Amino acid sequence: xxxxxxxxxxxxxxxxxxxxxxxxxxxxxxxxxxxxxxxxxxxxxxxxxxxxxxxxxxxxxxxxxxxxxxxxxxxxxxxxxxxxxxxxxxxxxxxxxxxxxxxxxxxxxxxxxxxxxxxxxxxxxxxxxxxxxxxxxxxxxxxxxxxxxxxxxxxxxxxxxxxxxxxxxxxxxxxxxxxxxxxxxxxxxxxxxxxxxxxxxxxxxxxxxxxxxxxxxxxxxxxxxxxxxxxxxxxxxxxxxxxxxxxxxxxxxxxxxxxxxxxxxxxxxxxxxxxxxxxxxxxxxxxxxxxxxxxxxxxxxxxxxxxxxxxxxxxxxxxxxxxxxxxxxxxxxxxxxxxx
Length: 340
Description:
It is a single chain. The protein is of the alpha/beta class. The chain folds into three domains: about 5-95, Beta-grasp domain (Ubiquitin-like (UB roll), Roll); about 105-195, Elongation Factor Tu (Ef-tu), domain 3 (Beta Barrel), CATH 2.40.30.10; about 205-335, Rossmann fold (3-Layer(aba) Sandwich), CATH 3.40.50. The chain has helices at about 25-30, 65-70, 175-180, 215-230, 250-255, 260-265, 275-280, 290-300, 315-325; strands at about 5-10, 15-20, 45-50, 55, 75, 80, 85-90, 105-115, 120-125, 135-140, 150, 160-170, 190-195, 205-215, 240-245, 265-270, 285, 305-310, 335. The strands form four sheets. Strands 11-10-13-8-9-12 form a six-stranded antiparallel sheet. The protein is globular, with a radius of gyration of 20 Å. The model has no long low-confidence stretch (mean pLDDT about 95).
């Protein structure tokens, strides 16, 4: 397989990029702090300028690029694959330096745990140890499906090579439809990871709040599992807020009851947004959006907490606005990877 040399302009850095890899993935594999968040073209955090060489821009109209960016010739490092030696301009970010350099590996499906009618935990095994930070994600490639999909791990790091992902079936989603309808134990995919910066920071001396919606539950489960086992956090409170459209979407009480560590440490709060579905199901819990329940529960004490969240963009946008604008929570206490 061919390899190309990528030089970072005005800095003493260069790194190899294997044929077919993006600038971003190659830089992270080399241990460099290339700025990014979603790794899928949506957030725009990984903008670069290509000063020399040939590339294949696989998504030139990605939503992470504004019309101004396109006019100025900026590219997304997560969407550009070099086809020759290249020179790029980018400002490296020390905070983006990977704790675990991502690797690409074949993974075999060995178990499926159905959590709701349309959400399941898919468990894969690789020959490599599953080294990641709780809250990180991996990019999954499915045979016959164009493009990688980012899914967060729901389990804890381990030497056995087990990678678990809570995934929700999306209407007309080519990857999730294939996964739910066609995949069986023994089938294989490609797992590339870990990626992501919204992982548990156990050294921070604040109580922990995790908020999830849909398959955004996956990284929050990994985080609360790690927090509940970390002796450094024995004196911290751990909260999990999880929202769904209808009562049938709420699976967190059962997940927490099945884990002795979580049952002893985690305070779980749930809300459903569809009032009619709640009434029809005899739901006696909160009805509304999960960020509203968070505010009702912790109120003026919100700035005293560290936040980790993942979910649909409307949820993360509303939650971020509420925390920062209404409750003046400092931005560095808010951790999430922007997926769009």
